[in-house]
């Protein structure tokens, strides 16, 4: 009787933990979904506010230039010049807006990682995430942080984790550390994709995961200006060929 009672209580406890974990996962997925929906709505509003008036103005000036073309070519050329100027200004504003949207990716992933880990009982701390970075680096770091946090939550068995971002004259370095059991495979699909993205920007990825000593992920990307110089140097022959 006592054995049956103990087994029953144990089964109830296991079932209760499973239900709690399922609820936490659903809660995390719901937060992600709501955040994505809010971000899409914000992008839609920003683009409408940014482009609505500009496109209407371009349409009006283009129509006016067409009417003036026959009777006043000089005025028509002025209108066309205005259209060109407005278009260039709009393009610059769109690029700035898109850069701002991408720059929010790392902050969003940081918040998501904190929510996911703390829901799983992992204390999460972070520092240095107040730097403005180029969009390509921002995306690479955000995806790396997402993969690292997911691996910590699913496989590490950790109680503490921390992430740090350091930016200096040499480049930018992201480190994610946990105190789990370590021993993760350094060549999984997610880590391979992370490594390929880093290498495409001239960076490196290192995984230190000795069994029983936790896991340390270090992603380093070179200074963006230096990377741009290398990229432009590689593109020059193709530019000359196109000109020829």
Q: What does this protein look like?
A:
By secondary structure, the chain is α+β, with helices and mostly antiparallel strands. Helix 2 (73-119) packs parallel to helix 3 (135-156). It has a five-stranded mixed beta sheet. It is 70% helix and 14% strand. The chain is built from five helices and five strands, in the order H-H-E-H-E-E-H-E-E-H.
Q: Which SSEs are present, and which pair or pack?
A:
Blueprint: H1 2-71, H2 73-119, E1 123-127, H3 135-156, E2 160-168, E3 171-178, H4 189-200, E4 204-208, E5 215-222, H5 224-243
Task: List the keywords.
244 residues; alpha+beta; 5-stranded mixed beta sheet
Task: Please give a quick description of this structure.
This protein is of the alpha+beta class. The chain contains 5 helices and 5 strands.
């Amino acid at each position: 009787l006592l054995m049956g009672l103990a087994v029953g209580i144990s089964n109830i406890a296991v079932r209760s933990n499973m239900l709690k974990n399922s609820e936490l996962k659903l809660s995390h997925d719901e937060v992600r979904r709501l955040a994505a929906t809010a971000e899409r709505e914000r992008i839609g509003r920003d683009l409408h506010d940014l482009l609505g008036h500009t496109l209407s103005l371009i349409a009006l000036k283009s129509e006016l230039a067409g009417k003036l073309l026959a009777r006043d070519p000089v005025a028509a050329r002025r209108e066309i010049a205005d259209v060109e100027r407005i278009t260039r200004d709009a393009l610059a504003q769109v690029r700035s807006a898109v850069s701002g949207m991408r720059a929010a990716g790392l902050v969003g992933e940081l918040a998501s990682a904190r929510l996911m880990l703390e829901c799983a009982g992992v204390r999460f701390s972070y520092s240095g995430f107040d730097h403005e970075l180029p969009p390509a680096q921002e995306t690479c770091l955000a995806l790396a942080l997402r993969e690292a946090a997911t691996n910590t939550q699913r496989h590490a068995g950790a109680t503490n984790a921390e992430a740090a971002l350091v930016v200096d004259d040499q480049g930018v370095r992201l480190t994610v550390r946990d105190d789990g059991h370590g021993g993760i495979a350094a060549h999984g699909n997610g880590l391979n994709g992370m490594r390929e993205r880093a290498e495409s920007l001239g960076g490196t990825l290192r995984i230190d995961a000795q069994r029983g000593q936790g896991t340390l992920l270090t992603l380093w990307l070179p200074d963006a200006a230096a990377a741009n110089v290398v990229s432009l140097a590689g593109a020059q022959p193709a530019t000359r060929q196109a000109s020829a």
